[in-house]
Sequence to fold (286 residues):
Amino acid sequence: MVDINTGILGLVGYPLGHSLSPLLHNATIEKEKLNYIYLPFPVEEKKFAAAMEGFRAINVRGLNITIPYKEAVIPFLDKVDPLAARIGAVNTIVNEEGVFTGYNTDIMGIVRMIREDGNFSIRGKKVMLLGAGGAARAAGIGVLEEGAASLSVVNRSLARAEKLAEEWKGYYPAAEIEALPLENRIFRENLKEVELIIDSTSVGMAPHADVAPLIPAEFLHEKMLVVDLVYNPLETCLMQAARAGGAKSLNGLGMLIYQGIEAFRLWTGREIEPVSWWKLTQNMLK
Ligand code: NAP
Fold:
């Protein structure tokens, strides 16, 4: 029931497409009998500054920020969490008495998924990251914060991977960090010792799910965990290759769930049991 004290939460992006967030957050608010409401706010680019001013004026409690505003929102904030600043992207805002602070819960989303659903400890491991876009930034910082021994960043546009590798070498001098081009496929020879692969590219995402994976099954082995950040389809082409090669695999649903749960905790102080969100998302994606 909405009343004068209802805390306003929401998702800001454009276009918002088929986001699951309003359904997940509102189902939890209802179940836990909390006095919040989570609304979708599709905001066109030319109106973004006015919208941010409006969110302050109506004193929203918190926001999720999605494409295309994760970077553009930073100048509108009063404070930015140090890891979000390191990534240069914010996906969650908390309003504490008029002070807007930006966080990036995607980092913890990826790390928690690998730890809990993959039953995998990143510390000391050799990791390969495919892609160098927004999701790659969160994944790379996440694994380096967790103490990965080495990180190979492989991308179609080598310059983007090189930029990330250079930046991360400065922050994590103890880790071995390199950038490799996707196109000459030599990186596949390095996979024998790699124990964690994270594919942060959009390759294999619906409606283009029926494509060849960036790494074929013959290079994937049973000592590996293969994580595809795509979750639609639930089993991607890379996950099929992982299965054929004997490797364990995960899709990106856990990341989506854990980043949302962490945002909810930042706004409300409540820890949500992931199981209820797993059930909801799986029903929605059927
Ligand atoms: P982005 O910033 O646009 O980056 C896309 C990346 O994919 C780039 O590295 C790009 O390489 C690469 N790529 C695209 N098409 C390719 C192709 N045909 N061959 C090889 N590489 C290709 O996008 P993003 O925001 O990082 O998102 C990437 C993926 O992560 C999306 O599929 C998204 O669904 C997923 N994601 C999942 C979650 C979650 O909660 N699970 C959250 C965020 C994103 P170039 O640099 O060469 O263009």
